[in-house]
Write a structure and sequence with these properties.
Layout (H helix, E strand, L loop, with lengths): L1 E5 L6 H10 L7 E5 L10 H10 L4 E3 L3 H10 L12 H5 L3 H9 L5 E3 L4 E3 L10 H15 L3 H5 L17 H14 L2 E2 L5 E2 L14 E2 L10 E4 L16 E3 L9 E6 L5 E5 L6
Helix pairs in contact: 6-8
Length: 273
């Protein structure tokens, strides 16, 4: 079975359909990995979410920060921003089905055959794959349970900025989710910076991209989240592949064949911003 990993969709439904045609995607023969942020900012958030939901057994999706934002807004613990394109989802007759499916998606996906791991934002270099798997399962168990609704009021926040194994309760869950869905720049101790969101030259003093620190394993880490990288990872000291080429900002939607490393891109329909 061929696995194609695809970067953040962000509601770019037309480009998603064109990309599936370009890679000759056949459900059952092929399988998709998607790096999260299925929705928001793009013009077809509802259509895109329905499209991926319809591919359920043929697609593996990890949760991104925009997906969690949708869930927070939908369940009364977040506010729509002027740039959000979520209203159609919130008003859709099938919203409950879509939201329930979304909150049960994982934070991390693996393929031992291809020696690949996918998360939305990346992996701390201090975490082994085994440890990351453990932490992902902790977060996923909460997100898919009734505990999720108790956690929602406490999900947002930048503290603690560094994960410590001794953390407990909401602080522990928040730190885990921030690593998987929000991480960009870190320091050598694994402290996350949440202020810088642009390119590499926006790094605060003492901070570097998480992938510029060496790891003790060789698995390829596939991630999205960081549109300013335009599908690149300059200076990487780990085996990584960035797939968010900023389609929603006028860049491109990118897919990579996990077996052959073939990359296929579809240019955005909207002008670059």
């Amino acid at each position: 079975m061929t696995i194609w990993a695809i970067g953040d969709l962000h509601g770019c439904g037309h480009e998603f359909d064109e990309l599936l045609k370009a890679i000759d995607f056949v459900p059952g023969r092929d399988h998709l990995w998607i790096t999260g942020d299925l929705i928001n900012r793009g013009p077809q958030s509802l259509e895109t979410l329905r499209r991926v939901h319809g591919l359920r057994e043929h697609a593996s999706v990890v949760l991104g920060n925009h997906d969690l934002h949708l869930l927070a807004v939908a369940f009364g613990h977040g506010r729509l921003k002027p740039s959000d394109t979520l209203a159609d989802i919130l008003e859709a007759p099938d919203r409950d089905v879509l939201l329930e499916w979304l909150r049960c998606q994982p934070l991390m996906v693996e393929s031992q055959t291809h020696q690949c791991v996918m998360t939305h934002a990346g992996l701390l270099p201090q975490w082994s794959i085994e440890r990351a798997r453990q932490y992902a399962r902790e977060g996923e168990a909460m997100l898919s349970s009734r505990q999720f609704f108790e956690f929602l009021p406490h999900m947002y926040g930048n503290e603690p900025a560094r994960f410590e194994p001794a953390l407990r309760g909401n602080d522990r869950l928040r730190a885990i989710i921030n690593v998987f869905t929000r991480m960009r720049f870190i320091d050598e101790r694994g402290t996350l910076d949440f202020s810088a969101k642009e390119g590499l030259d926006s790094a605060p003093e003492g901070f570097r991209p998480w992938f510029c620190f060496e790891r003790g394993d060789t698995e390829r880490l596939i991630f999205g989240h960081w549109a300013a990288l335009e599908g690149r990872a300059p200076g990487a000291q780990a085996n990584v592949r960035s797939l968010d080429a900023g389609c929603v900002w006028g860049g491109a939607l990118m897919a990579m064949n996990l077996e052959t490393d073939q990359v296929v891109t579809i240019a955005a329909q909207k002008p670059r911003q």
